[in-house]
């Protein structure tokens, strides 16, 4: 019976060793799980912060794009109006040149008429 007791004691020792190894592995795995859960929470918190930041950036971008579109429209209208002003100025200048030339002829004729008399 001593031999069987020794064999049984050997089995028991080996069983206890495996149980202790399993407990150590479980504790290591529990630490890894807690660490992964903490990392997951940190990432989720970062995502929440980044989502808020993304929302602000998108709002800002939409506002800036709308403002740029409005400025482009105003600029295009202003350029058209300025071209009209330039054209009107050119026409006015031509009219003034013509009228000044005509006036100079009238004055010259008057001078010639009054100088002869």
UniProtKB/TrEMBL annotation:
GO terms for biological process: axon extension. The keyword Coiled coil applies. GO terms for cellular component: axon; centrosome; ciliary basal body. Keywords: Coiled coil. Residues 19-53 form a coiled coil. It comes from the Eukaryota. InterPro entries: SSNA1_fam. The keyword Coiled coil applies. Signal peptide: none annotated. This is Microtubule nucleation factor SSNA1-like.
């Amino acid at each position: 019976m001593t031999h069987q007791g020794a064999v049984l004691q050997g089995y028991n020792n080996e069983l206890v060793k495996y149980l202790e190894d399993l407990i150590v592995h479980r504790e290591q795995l529990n630490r890894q799980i807690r660490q992964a859960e903490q990392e997951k929470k940190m990432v989720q918190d970062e995502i929440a912060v980044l989502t808020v930041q993304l929302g602000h950036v998108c709002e800002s971008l939409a506002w800036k794009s709308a403002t740029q579109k409005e400025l482009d429209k105003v600029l295009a209208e202003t350029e058209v109006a300025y071209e009209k002003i330039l054209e009107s100025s050119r026409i006015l200048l031509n009219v003034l040149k013509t009228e000044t030339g005509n006036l100079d002829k009238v004055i010259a004729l008057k001078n010639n008429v009054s100088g002869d008399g």
